[in-house]
TrEMBL record:
Residues 96-177 form the Smr domain. It comes from Vreelandella halophila. It comes from the Bacteria. Residues 20-30 have a biased composition (Basic and acidic residues). The lineage of its organism: Bacteria, Pseudomonadati, Pseudomonadota, Gammaproteobacteria, Oceanospirillales. SUPFAM superfamilies: SMR domain-like (SSF160443). Residues 20-40 are annotated as: Disordered. This is DNA endonuclease SmrA. InterPro entries: Endonuc_SmrA, Smr_dom, Smr_dom_sf.
Protein backbone atom coordinates (compact mmCIF):
# COMPACT_ATOMS: atom_id res chain seq x y z
CA UNK A 1 0.00 0.00 0.00
CA UNK A 2 1.43 3.35 -1.02
CA UNK A 3 1.14 6.46 1.10
CA UNK A 4 0.25 9.93 -0.10
CA UNK A 5 3.86 11.09 0.27
CA UNK A 6 5.19 8.18 -1.81
CA UNK A 7 2.69 8.95 -4.57
CA UNK A 8 3.68 12.62 -4.63
CA UNK A 9 7.37 11.65 -4.80
CA UNK A 10 6.66 9.36 -7.73
CA UNK A 11 4.74 12.04 -9.64
CA UNK A 12 7.49 14.58 -8.98
CA UNK A 13 10.17 12.15 -10.22
CA UNK A 14 8.19 11.42 -13.37
CA UNK A 15 7.32 15.05 -14.09
CA UNK A 16 9.73 15.58 -17.02
CA UNK A 17 9.10 12.18 -18.66
CA UNK A 18 7.39 12.40 -22.05
CA UNK A 19 5.04 9.62 -23.18
CA UNK A 20 6.06 7.64 -26.26
CA UNK A 21 4.00 8.90 -29.14
CA UNK A 22 4.31 5.83 -31.37
CA UNK A 23 4.07 2.37 -29.82
CA UNK A 24 7.28 0.34 -30.14
CA UNK A 25 5.57 -2.52 -32.01
CA UNK A 26 5.84 -4.03 -35.43
CA UNK A 27 3.07 -3.12 -37.82
CA UNK A 28 1.71 -6.52 -38.82
CA UNK A 29 -1.20 -5.33 -40.92
CA UNK A 30 0.11 -2.35 -42.82
CA UNK A 31 1.22 -2.71 -46.42
CA UNK A 32 0.94 -6.47 -46.61
CA UNK A 33 -0.07 -7.82 -49.97
CA UNK A 34 -0.89 -11.45 -50.54
CA UNK A 35 1.04 -12.91 -53.45
CA UNK A 36 -0.47 -15.39 -55.92
CA UNK A 37 1.89 -18.05 -54.53
CA UNK A 38 0.56 -17.51 -51.01
CA UNK A 39 -3.02 -17.76 -52.25
CA UNK A 40 -2.23 -21.04 -54.02
CA UNK A 41 -0.57 -22.48 -50.89
CA UNK A 42 -3.59 -21.48 -48.78
CA UNK A 43 -5.96 -23.11 -51.27
CA UNK A 44 -3.86 -26.30 -51.37
CA UNK A 45 -3.75 -26.45 -47.56
CA UNK A 46 -7.54 -26.22 -47.33
CA UNK A 47 -7.97 -28.92 -49.98
CA UNK A 48 -5.41 -31.13 -48.24
CA UNK A 49 -7.42 -31.01 -45.01
CA UNK A 50 -10.65 -31.97 -46.74
CA UNK A 51 -9.22 -34.66 -49.04
CA UNK A 52 -10.38 -38.11 -47.96
CA UNK A 53 -7.44 -40.51 -47.85
CA UNK A 54 -9.74 -43.37 -46.90
CA UNK A 55 -9.95 -45.82 -49.83
CA UNK A 56 -12.96 -47.73 -48.47
CA UNK A 57 -15.93 -47.56 -50.81
CA UNK A 58 -19.53 -48.55 -50.30
CA UNK A 59 -21.08 -49.52 -53.60
CA UNK A 60 -23.23 -52.56 -54.29
CA UNK A 61 -23.20 -53.77 -50.68
CA UNK A 62 -24.39 -57.34 -50.19
CA UNK A 63 -26.80 -57.02 -47.27
CA UNK A 64 -26.30 -59.54 -44.50
CA UNK A 65 -28.57 -60.73 -41.73
CA UNK A 66 -27.88 -61.03 -37.99
CA UNK A 67 -26.71 -64.67 -38.13
CA UNK A 68 -24.70 -64.51 -41.37
CA UNK A 69 -21.02 -65.34 -40.93
CA UNK A 70 -18.20 -63.25 -42.37
CA UNK A 71 -15.28 -65.12 -43.88
CA UNK A 72 -12.39 -64.04 -46.13
CA UNK A 73 -8.81 -65.06 -46.80
CA UNK A 74 -6.32 -63.86 -49.35
CA UNK A 75 -4.52 -66.21 -51.69
CA UNK A 76 -1.44 -67.60 -50.02
CA UNK A 77 -2.87 -67.82 -46.51
CA UNK A 78 -2.27 -71.34 -45.25
CA UNK A 79 -5.28 -73.44 -44.30
CA UNK A 80 -3.94 -73.96 -40.74
CA UNK A 81 -3.43 -70.22 -40.25
CA UNK A 82 -6.95 -69.45 -41.44
CA UNK A 83 -8.35 -72.18 -39.18
CA UNK A 84 -6.67 -70.51 -36.19
CA UNK A 85 -8.20 -67.16 -37.24
CA UNK A 86 -11.64 -68.77 -37.58
CA UNK A 87 -11.37 -70.42 -34.16
CA UNK A 88 -10.11 -67.24 -32.47
CA UNK A 89 -6.84 -68.87 -31.44
CA UNK A 90 -4.67 -65.83 -32.07
CA UNK A 91 -4.40 -63.32 -29.22
CA UNK A 92 -6.62 -60.27 -29.68
CA UNK A 93 -4.11 -57.44 -29.64
CA UNK A 94 -6.53 -54.60 -30.45
CA UNK A 95 -10.30 -54.05 -30.52
CA UNK A 96 -12.68 -51.66 -32.23
CA UNK A 97 -16.34 -51.23 -31.29
CA UNK A 98 -18.59 -49.83 -34.03
CA UNK A 99 -21.87 -50.03 -32.12
CA UNK A 100 -24.08 -46.93 -32.44
CA UNK A 101 -21.97 -45.43 -35.24
CA UNK A 102 -23.21 -44.17 -38.57
CA UNK A 103 -21.89 -45.81 -41.74
CA UNK A 104 -19.60 -42.82 -42.40
CA UNK A 105 -18.24 -42.89 -38.84
CA UNK A 106 -17.70 -46.67 -39.02
CA UNK A 107 -15.95 -46.34 -42.39
CA UNK A 108 -13.47 -43.85 -40.96
CA UNK A 109 -12.97 -45.83 -37.74
CA UNK A 110 -12.27 -49.10 -39.59
CA UNK A 111 -9.71 -47.38 -41.81
CA UNK A 112 -8.02 -45.64 -38.85
CA UNK A 113 -8.06 -48.83 -36.76
CA UNK A 114 -6.32 -50.92 -39.42
CA UNK A 115 -3.80 -48.17 -40.11
CA UNK A 116 -3.02 -47.77 -36.39
CA UNK A 117 -2.70 -51.55 -35.92
CA UNK A 118 -0.17 -51.68 -38.74
CA UNK A 119 1.75 -48.75 -37.30
CA UNK A 120 1.99 -50.52 -33.93
CA UNK A 121 2.83 -53.95 -35.37
CA UNK A 122 -0.49 -55.50 -34.31
CA UNK A 123 -1.22 -58.71 -36.23
CA UNK A 124 -4.66 -59.72 -34.96
CA UNK A 125 -7.63 -57.73 -33.80
CA UNK A 126 -11.35 -57.84 -33.17
CA UNK A 127 -13.93 -55.52 -34.71
CA UNK A 128 -17.34 -55.48 -33.01
CA UNK A 129 -19.89 -54.45 -35.62
CA UNK A 130 -23.10 -55.79 -34.11
CA UNK A 131 -25.64 -58.18 -35.53
CA UNK A 132 -28.39 -55.77 -36.53
CA UNK A 133 -31.02 -57.79 -34.66
CA UNK A 134 -32.83 -54.65 -33.53
CA UNK A 135 -33.28 -53.35 -37.07
CA UNK A 136 -36.89 -53.81 -38.17
CA UNK A 137 -35.75 -55.01 -41.61
CA UNK A 138 -33.32 -57.54 -40.01
CA UNK A 139 -30.43 -56.16 -42.07
CA UNK A 140 -27.05 -55.91 -40.33
CA UNK A 141 -26.01 -52.63 -41.93
CA UNK A 142 -22.60 -52.00 -40.34
CA UNK A 143 -21.74 -55.70 -40.54
CA UNK A 144 -22.53 -55.67 -44.26
CA UNK A 145 -20.27 -52.68 -44.84
CA UNK A 146 -17.43 -54.16 -42.74
CA UNK A 147 -17.67 -57.30 -44.88
CA UNK A 148 -17.18 -55.16 -47.99
CA UNK A 149 -14.52 -52.81 -46.57
CA UNK A 150 -12.02 -55.25 -45.07
CA UNK A 151 -11.07 -56.99 -48.35
CA UNK A 152 -10.44 -53.53 -49.86
CA UNK A 153 -7.51 -53.05 -47.47
CA UNK A 154 -4.46 -54.91 -48.83
CA UNK A 155 -3.00 -55.36 -45.36
CA UNK A 156 -6.02 -57.39 -44.21
CA UNK A 157 -4.95 -60.96 -44.87
CA UNK A 158 -8.00 -62.77 -43.47
CA UNK A 159 -11.07 -62.28 -41.33
CA UNK A 160 -13.81 -64.45 -39.90
CA UNK A 161 -16.82 -64.02 -37.62
CA UNK A 162 -15.86 -64.39 -33.98
CA UNK A 163 -16.49 -67.22 -31.57
CA UNK A 164 -19.53 -66.75 -29.25
CA UNK A 165 -17.29 -65.69 -26.32
CA UNK A 166 -16.04 -62.74 -28.42
CA UNK A 167 -19.37 -61.66 -29.90
CA UNK A 168 -20.22 -64.41 -32.39
CA UNK A 169 -21.67 -63.11 -35.64
CA UNK A 170 -21.69 -59.60 -34.15
CA UNK A 171 -17.88 -59.36 -34.31
CA UNK A 172 -15.06 -60.35 -36.62
CA UNK A 173 -11.47 -61.49 -36.06
CA UNK A 174 -9.05 -59.67 -38.37
CA UNK A 175 -5.56 -60.89 -39.28
CA UNK A 176 -3.16 -58.30 -40.67
CA UNK A 177 -0.05 -58.55 -42.82
CA UNK A 178 3.28 -58.81 -41.06
CA UNK A 179 5.42 -55.72 -41.14
CA UNK A 180 8.61 -55.98 -43.22
CA UNK A 181 10.62 -55.95 -39.97
CA UNK A 182 8.61 -58.87 -38.57
CA UNK A 183 9.03 -60.86 -41.80
CA UNK A 184 12.81 -60.33 -41.61
CA UNK A 185 12.89 -61.43 -37.94
CA UNK A 186 10.99 -64.61 -38.88
CA UNK A 187 13.40 -65.29 -41.75
CA UNK A 188 16.34 -64.98 -39.40
CA UNK A 189 14.70 -67.06 -36.69
CA UNK A 190 13.67 -69.94 -38.95
CA UNK A 191 16.48 -69.95 -41.51
CA UNK A 192 18.70 -72.38 -39.72
Amino acid sequence: MTTKDERLQFLEAMGDVEPIRKPDRADLDGGRQVTPGQLERQRAAVLEKTRDRNPLTATDVAWLGPQDELSFKRDGIQHGVFKKVRLGQYPIEAQLDLHRMTVDEARQEVFNFIRECLRRGVRSGLIKHGKGERNPDRIATIKSYVNQWLPQLEDVMAFHSAQPKHGGTGAVYVMLRKSPEERERNRERFSG
